TrEMBL record:
It comes from the Bacteria. The lineage of its organism: Bacteria, Pseudomonadati, Pseudomonadota, Betaproteobacteria, Burkholderiales. This is Uncharacterized protein. Pfam families: CPPA. It comes from Paraburkholderia azotifigens. InterPro entries: CPPA (IPR058891).
Length: 95
């Protein structure tokens, strides 16, 4: 069905999946034909059908921290702390 409508992100994919389960592919295809222009947005298809899909929140999955990443962050924090101490020391000597 993604070849018929604009699907840009995970929220769109979930919306299309919901539509397919609730109204079926034939209803979606008929609504697409009634929309003007090329590939319609899912919101236009929903309006044509007369349904309002649930608000799907795009899931943002965060990868688990790795030992390499944690080591890199520790190194960066060390560099920043050293620069901060050097800057504070130079400012203290100026006064």
């Amino acid at each position: 069905m993604e070849h018929l409508v604009r699907v840009y992100n995970e929220k769109d994919r979930r919306t299309l999946e919901w539509l397919r389960k609730h109204v079926g592919d034939a209803t979606i295809a008929a609504a697409v034909k009634r929309c003007a222009g090329g590939k319609p947005f899912l919101s236009s298809v929903c309006r044509q059908i007369g349904v309002r899909p649930p608000d799907f929140v795009a899931s943002v999955s965060r990868p688990a921290p790795t030992a390499t990443g944690e080591q890199a962050l520790a190194t960066i924090r060390g560099i920043l702390a050293a620069k901060s101490l050097a800057t504070n020391g130079a400012i203290a000597r100026m006064h």
